[in-house]
Amino acid sequence: MGIMQRFLLAVVFVLMSFSTALAQNIKQLFEEGKQLFDQEQYALAFGKFEPLTALTQENDMVKYASFYYAVSAYKTGDRVIAKNAFKQIQGKYPNWKIDNEIDYWLGLIAIEQGQIAEGFDYLAKVEDDNFSFSINALKKQAVDSIRDIDRLKALLNDYPENLIASQLASEMLRLDVQDQDLELLNSLQEQYDLQISLTLDDIEVSPKKEVYNIGLFLPFAYRGDSARIAQLESNWTTRMYHGALLGVEKLKSEGINVNLITVDTRDGRQRLDQMIRSGELDDLDFIIGPVTQGAVEQMTPFSKEKRINMINPLSSNSEILVENPFAFLYYPSNESIAIRSADYAVKHFRKNKNAAVFYSGDADLERALLYKELLEKDSFNVPIFKRVPPNESVKIQQWLVEEQEIDQDSSLVNRMIEEMDSLKAAGVQRWQKYSERDFVKDTLKILPDSIGHVFIASDYSQLSTSALSGIAARPDTVGFLASSRFLTAEQSLSFDQLERLNAILVGSNYMNYSTSKVAEFRENYINRFLSSPVKEERLGDAYLGYDIVVTFGKLLQEYGKYFQVGLRRRDLIEGELTEYFRYRLSNDNRYMPYLRVRSAKVEKIEDQ
């Protein structure tokens, strides 16, 4: 064998040895990288795969190493390297049939980088139906993040898809009515089959007037004798009327003309029925009240038939809203308060998931029951669920700090008495079957660390005051949660106690008494009526009358008779004295910030 032949054989041998070593090294690196990748150690996997991406071989390990390298880069947060790596794969291996995966990843990265149009371009190339769910979710996430209307319009022009049209409509509905493109909204509704409520029960327009007639329906009980007039001057209905009068004057100073018409609802159904039948109420544009059950039952069908908006200024009972889109509650409903309260409790009272719930009567029972139901769905326990009338509120404090005997249920007591009476009547000598002790339930004492928080499902301040006093006297830490409606300018409850116990209040028509608007109203009221306005916790008052007339008078001026067209399209409506109203998804006020007291001032807590 010649020298040249031996040299060529040696070269071949070396190349074969090198090729074998390289193949073994590729296999080792790939397997090590894949193991790290499967263990989600992406930074280490990235380092193993990186040398393989520079190779030109088209064997499967090199190709898949490039893919895993790109994914590892993404997982470690380097979207730029990941994007370039995915694009390099498409260039190096045009015949490798993983275009769907690559285009999906490129679409994902582009969207996360804020390049939504580019992302949609890549996602449009994905033909595999297995990606449909992920693509739809990714597109929705991208579109939901866009608030700019012009950008949404441009995106919809290039990608005429339902989810973009829906987001565009939602953002347009957030604008004030006068800024909304109703022609475009109608077009979106028809072209993309969207359910956009632009009208109300076949009402196409909301008429505007020079003067709006507002009816104030309250149980005044007008009489001519001087003693009765003097009594009326200190009545809550009169104070509410005085507040409403100042509201009319405030509106007039701003160029809004309102005609306030008072209707006494205390004299029974006959007078109100007569007014309804005669048609003298048909010209009303807005009704404040009524507040008594009988009058509400009379006026509800009238309001619905004549399509006149009415607002109940006192109640939280959502039954008033049933089947009448023209009925509103000034306050949040019992359901809304329960839901908002339970949301806070399940987030912040998890350390001890036992709760005590107290309510004052039938008017609060729905709030208490829903709160209990919502907590129990989240693995809380409500071992104490009790009705406590306001005049017996001291029992809450006693239960929290002392051992108390609890009377048996009245129906059970009656049955026990009837049983003994029948034995006596039958001549049984030992008819006294039950002792005095049998008429009492077990004793109740809420032991230390046995409950995590107390929820007062009532707007009566007596219940909250009693609960807070009981909590303050306990050796353990117990949370307190209630509606803020009892929190008034004239309250007797100590701010110091509310702060010390870290009491949490769910804002129910939250009114900041330190604002200039409140100061202006109080000054005008004192100058006009020579007395201070009194903020009631359950009844109407001057603040409330003024707030409703001015706030809703401005809504009438801005949106016309059917102001709910505006309410539905705006998230928050600024009140005159109440901070905000939210009626966008309901006919009760669902603006309910969480409140607490700090440094003798009520402050809002950011949602967490």
Walkthrough of the structure:
The protein is α/β, with parallel strands linked by helices and about 600 residues long. The chain is built from 23 helices and 16 strands. The chain has helices at about 5-40, 40-50, 60-75, 80-90, 100-110, 115-125, 130-145, 150-160, 160-175, 180-190, 225-235, 235-255, 270-280, 295-305, 335-350, 360-375, 395-400, 410-425, 460-470, 495-500, 515-530, 540-560, 565-570; strands spanning about 210-220, 255-265, 285-290, 310, 325-330, 355-360, 380-385, 405, 440-445, 455, 480-485, 505, 575, 580, 595-600, 600-605. α19 (about 460-470) links the parallel β10 and β11 (about 480-485). The longest helix has about 35 residues, at about 5-40. It is globular, with a radius of gyration of 36 Å. The N and C termini lie far apart (about 85 Å). The relative contact order is 0.08. Mean pLDDT is about 85; it is low at about 5-20 and about 225-230.
Summarize the structure.
This protein has 608 residues and is α/β, with parallel strands linked by helices. 50% of the residues lie in helices and 12% in strands.
Name some characteristics of this structure.
608 residues; alpha/beta; Serine Threonine Protein Phosphatase 5, Tetratricopeptide repeat; Rossmann fold; 4 domains; seven-stranded mixed β-sheet; five-stranded parallel β-sheet; 50% helix; 12% strand; globular
Overall pLDDT, averaged?
84
Number of helices: 23
Into which percentage range does the β-strand content fall?
A: 5-15%
**The CATH topology of the largest domain:** Rossmann fold
> Main sheet?
7 strands, mixed
Gyration radius (Cα, Å) is 36 Å
Give a count of the beta strands, DSSP E runs of length 2 or more: 16
| CATH architectural category of the largest domain | 3-Layer(aba) Sandwich
Kindly report the oligomeric state of this protein.
Answer: single chain
Q: Which shape, going by the Cα principal axes?
A: globular
The helicity comes to: 40-55%
Strand order of the largest sheet: 7-6-10-11-12-15-16
Which CATH top level class of the largest domain fits? Alpha Beta
User: How many structural domains in the coordinates?
Assistant: 4
The span between the termini is 86 Å
Low-pLDDT stretches are: 6-22, 224-231
